[in-house]
Write a structure and sequence with these properties.
The protein is built from 7 helices and 20 strands. The chain is α+β, with helices and mostly antiparallel strands and 323 residues long. The strands form 3 sheets. Strands 3-1-2-4-9-8-7-6-5 form a 9-stranded mixed β-sheet, covered by helices on one side. β10 and β11 form a beta hairpin. α2 crosses α7 and α4 packs across α6. 43% of the residues are buried.
Length: 323
């Protein structure tokens, strides 16, 4: 059974996961994925929405035209495809919404973000779908920064309360204009989905398996020619904006994890700089913007080295929904 590293977890999957990078077999899996039956509905759900429901240690997710996904105790996913569904479409949902839900089920922190490695530390790019997370990460990868994660970032806190980002072995997903602007055609592969005009793109380099300390977070906002490339939103606004970038905030809300994500966001702001990033409208300016971004976090790191690092910060908030 192929093995992958997704959000820092070793995953054995009976289902091929296009865009995910295979691991050498041997490590015991944290999560097992396979084809299997999933009910149309759970018997006695305590939380129920049109797309998903929860009953104890079970979570059922339904995607019309794709299939049903049954998550058990944060350790197992059974995939029941819809009639005529493309297996690759099932895999895309597995790597996105379904695995994000699994992280919530495990009591882990998950953010809607991409991340790269810079001098042994992580830099995270947050934002809603279509805002440019993957494109910004690709531009930074072109500067020599290994890709750490794309679209989904799993975080934890070390013994000192400092945030760390877990490695996620997957390729980038980029639209044709971004591929052309960054001269990545030679690295572009298959379409992400048959009905989506995006391609899997192998990054020039990928980070290792270790979780990396978080150096900085950049939250993407809508392109604005009058806005500076990078702005400091202030502590309170930074916490609120970061909290809103939890992966699948509807699950966070309906499972009672808002306070945990607020506390986690406050801890991240206390240890790592959180800034607003206005991506350029003209993709031809992406390489220039990426260089300015790298100069920003490098200059900030030099200042922080001269200051006393925070100690004894906030510990990881207690999970409120754990298998």
């Amino acid at each position: 059974m192929p093995a992958y590293r997704i959000a820092g977890l070793v995953v054995d999957s009976q289902i091929a996961l296009p865009g995910a990078l295979s691991l050498d077999p041997g490590a015991p899996p944290d999560v097992v994925i396979g084809w299997g039956p999933a009910p149309a509905a759970l018997a006695r759900p305590t939380v129920s929405t049109p797309g998903w429901e929860i009953e104890g240690e079970l979570m059922l997710m339904r995607v019309p035209g794709v299939g049903r996904f049954l998550l058990c105790r944060g350790r197992q996913i059974s995939v029941d495809p819809a009639d005529g569904a493309d297996p690759d479409d099932c895999a895309i949902y597995l790597l996105g919404s379904v695995f994000g839900a699994l992280l919530h089920q495990r009591g882990q922190l998950a953010f809607h973000a991409s991340a790269i490695e810079a001098d042994g530390r992580a830099v995270m790019i947050c934002g809603p779908s279509g805002r440019g997370k993957s494109t910004t990460a690709a531009a930074l990868a072109q500067l020599g920064h290994p890709l750490l994660s794309d679209d989904l970032c799993a975080l934890s806190f070390d013994a000192d309360g400092a945030p760390r980002v877990h490695a996620d072995g997957r390729q980038l997903k980029l639209a044709p204009d971004a591929v052309a602007a960054l001269d990545l055609a030679a690295r572009a592969g298959a379409r992400v989905r048959s009905d989506v005009d995006k391609r899997f793109v192998a990054p020039p380099a990928a980070a290792g398996a270790a979780a990396l300390p978080l150096a900085a977070v950049y939250i993407l906002r809508a392109p604005d020619p009058d806005a500076p490339l990078i702005a400091d939103p202030g502590v309170s606004d930074a916490v609120r904006r970061l909290q809103r970038n939890a992966y699948r905030p509807g699950i966070v809300e309906r499972t009672g994890q808002q306070r945990r994500y607020f506390e986690a966001s406050a801890a991240i702001v206390a240890h790592a700089g959180v800034f607003l990033l206005a991506p350029p409208r003209d993709l031809a300016r992406l390489p220039q913007a990426a260089r300015a971004l790298a100069e920003h976090w490098t200059g900030r790191a030099a200042v922080r080295k001269r200051a006393s690092p925070p100690r004894g910060g906030l510990q990881q908030p207690e999970a409120t929904w754990r298998a």
